[in-house]
Amino acid sequence: MATTSSSATLGTAVSEADKAAVAAVPGRIVAAWARQDAKAFADVFTPDGTMILPGFYRKGSADIEAFMAGAFQGPYKGTQVTGQPIDVRFISADSAVVVTQGGVLAAGETEVADERAIRATWVVTRHEGEWKLAAYQNSPR
Question: Is residue 20 helix, strand or coil?
């Protein structure tokens, strides 16, 4: 179950709509992956966002899109991804950290195999009025 920081911690109110929008960012990645849509995947990131996966570092939405386009044609072709928030904390009214647990599902799988199970940290920020992913990093669970 996800936890969310209180507005008293921040000294400013965080709206329920912002809490929901931040918690929904991982779902936007899951949905783009389900469609194998590299552009939609990269559009979740800020223009200068970073993505760190084991063995890979990508910076900028264009680089992330190119990487994922290749991955969806190669090692991630036909896969799905899952991730559930286990912690949501607002750092300020315009930034938050989300921690998720999940991983990549191979074709036909309904549960993530131990070797593909991960925990991830998402730094989410309000960018041009929309909650976007400024930085993402995952590691084996």
Answer: helix
